[in-house]
């Protein structure tokens, strides 16, 4: 299967999702005012996509989910450490908004997560028998959890430290 076939064979919704995620990542480069619940949007999107892919793409979804949970825990730790160095959330006085500091980490990990997931799905399309390979099921789940966990770790780092000291 050629690169051209892979690119043209990719569903349009995947490219639309990539554009949406890149736009979100570019927006995240600058400080912005958001409601607190918006912090959890990106981690929830990646969690939903990860879980749905583990369920529908793998022959051993339970083992894929267990590996995903393990990857999620590792990713939370990595994300926590990476986002530890960025400025903290602040309350925008007189509103129910917070000021979310800009960081290139979000765009970087959006791209990493998309590329990893894209490659895994391409492997499954090019070599369908991988669906039945136990090791591949574990790797698929682990990488899905790891990439989502980084977003959860960063979000939880910002949110928990904000809740402890809201300024």
UniProtKB/TrEMBL annotation:
Species of origin: Bartonella birtlesii LL-WM9
Lineage of origin: Bacteria, Pseudomonadati, Pseudomonadota, Alphaproteobacteria, Hyphomicrobiales
Key words of the record: Membrane, Transmembrane, Transmembrane helix
Membrane-crossing residue ranges in chain numbering: 12-29, 36-55, 61-83, 104-124, 136-160
Protein name, UniProt field: DUF1453 domain-containing protein
């Amino acid at each position: 299967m050629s690169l051209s076939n892979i690119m043209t064979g990719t569903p349009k919704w995947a490219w639309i999702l990539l554009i949406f995620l890149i736009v979100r990542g570019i927006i995240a480069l600058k400080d912005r005012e958001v409601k607190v619940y918006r912090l959890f949007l990106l981690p929830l999107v990646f969690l939903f996509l990860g879980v749905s892919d583990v369920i529908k793409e793998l022959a051993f979804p339970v083992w894929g989910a267990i590996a995903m949970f393990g990857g999620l825990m590792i990713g939370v730790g990595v994300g926590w450490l990476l986002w530890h160095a960025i400025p903290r959330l602040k309350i925008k006085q007189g509103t129910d908004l917070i000021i979310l500091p800009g960081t290139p980490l979000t765009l970087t990990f959006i791209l990493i997560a998309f590329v990893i997931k894209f490659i895994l799905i391409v492997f499954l399309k090019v070599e369908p028998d991988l669906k039945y390979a136990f090791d591949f099921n574990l790797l698929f789940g682990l990488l899905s959890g790891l990439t989502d966990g980084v977003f959860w770790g960063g979000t939880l780092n910002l949110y928990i430290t904000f809740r402890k000291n809201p300024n």
